[in-house]
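Field log, afternoon session.

UNIT: design team B
ACTIVITY: writing a sequence onto a fixed backbone
BACKBONE:
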């Protein structure tokens, strides 16, 4: 897993930071998607990740509130 993370870091760093310094006709450009995706892809992953975290936290809070309401209902009965 560490090797995959290292590869992804190296690939993305080369793509986003080093690629603009190479000439547009350089063959190294063939190994990477368009540079605009270097921003779009992480932004999309960030939105999806934060949405997943928000959904998890929201569902956990709702479950806890249901448990509290059931306990209160049992105490009142």
């Amino acid at each position: 897993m560490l090797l995959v993370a290292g590869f992804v870091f190296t690939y993305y760093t080369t793509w986003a930071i080093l690629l603009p310094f190479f000439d547009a006709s350089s063959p190294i450009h063939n190994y990477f998607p368009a540079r605009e995706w270097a921003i779009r892809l992480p932004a999309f992953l960030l939105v999806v990740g934060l949405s997943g975290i928000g959904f998890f936290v929201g569902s956990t809070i709702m479950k806890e509130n249901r448990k509290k309401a059931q306990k209160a209902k049992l105490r009142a009965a």
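LOG NOTE: The radius of gyration is 23 Å.
NEXT ACTIVITY: expression trials, pending approval
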